[in-house]
Specification:
The chain is an alpha/beta fold. It contains seven helices and nine strands.
Length: 270
């Protein structure tokens, strides 16, 4: 191979070419290539998991090592699984409560769920009762596909005597003025309508501790919580013109993340 041929072709000389056919310049080029290859091989050992600028690549490009994404894929899959599990638990608890509530309401009852949260209780009830179930809460939207309206904590966004039942599922202890909320319940209930109420009961030292933690968790969003005992709720309902049709205590283990004594009340207008 001639010197001009190597330069004009702009190619590296063949590494296995006989030494006798190589010019001094070609030998120098081969030596440079081997030295460069060894140098890059040493650098490649430290490239795992890193991206570094490489002077041998065109301007603006980088030598990118291929990291092992197995761990990241596993963590992402576990996160998706946990999110799906949380959603199933929420939907499952809502379904159980909807079944419990539906036993006390006649078919075709139109229901308003005050403080509906994700809205799944109202969603399940609409299918069980075969009627409209609406929800109101402080948030902009609900997760379930229901007739949802945003609520400012005062008057309900609903006309007078527009519902057969009103749900207050663990909501009244969040109310900053519980009398206003109960007055609104009276206003939107039709004649013969019912109010369904679930409440946490601060009975034991353990219950009071759980309620205190709940208050710390929610007071920034809804204001301070007010938990009452059974006798206090009874007196309040009576003073607001409600009659207790049915009531019973509930297990604290219904929700393992919030283990507190609970009470169920079914009210009717006097």
């Amino acid at each position: 191979m001639s010197t001009n041929g190597g330069v004009e072709g702009n190619q590296w000389p063949a590494l296995n070419a006989p030494p006798s056919t190589m010019s001094p310049i070609g030998s120098s080029e081969i030596s440079c290539a081997l030295s460069t290859r060894d140098h890059l091989g040493q650098r490649d050992q430290g490239l795992r998991g890193r991206t570094v600028a490489d002077p041998w690549l065109p301007s603006g490009r980088h030598a990118v090592a291929q990291p092992n994404y197995f761990g990241a894929r596993v963590l992402k899959a576990l996160k998706r699984r946990w999110q799906r599990e949380r959603r199933r638990r929420k939907v499952g608890r809502s379904y159980d409560m909807a079944l419990e509530i539906a036993r006390f309401l006649p078919p075709g009852s139109e229901v308003l769920d005050v403080g509906c949260g994700n809205g799944f209780i109202a969603h399940h009830l609409s299918a069980m009762l075969g009627a409209r179930a609406s929800g109101i809460d402080l948030g902009a939207t609900a997760a379930a596909p229901i007739d949802y309206r945003q609520y400012d904590g005062g008057g309900f966004p609903a006309p007078d005597k527009s519902f057969d039942a009103v749900l207050l599922c663990y909501v009244l202890h969040h109310a900053q003025n519980v009398s206003i909320v109960l007055e609104e319940v009276r206003r939107v209930l039709r004649d013969g309508g019912r109010a369904v109420i679930y409440e946490d009961m601060p009975l034991s030292f353990w219950d009071k501790g759980v309620c205190r933690l709940h208050n710390q968790q929610w007071r920034a969003r809804t204001g301070p919580c007010t938990f009452r005992r059974d006798d206090e709720w009874r007196a309040l309902f009576d003073s607001m013109g409600f009659e207790i049709v049915s009531n019973r205590s509930l297990s604290r283990w219904r929700n393992l993340t919030h283990p507190v004594s609970r009470k169920f009340y079914l009210l009717e207008l006097k």
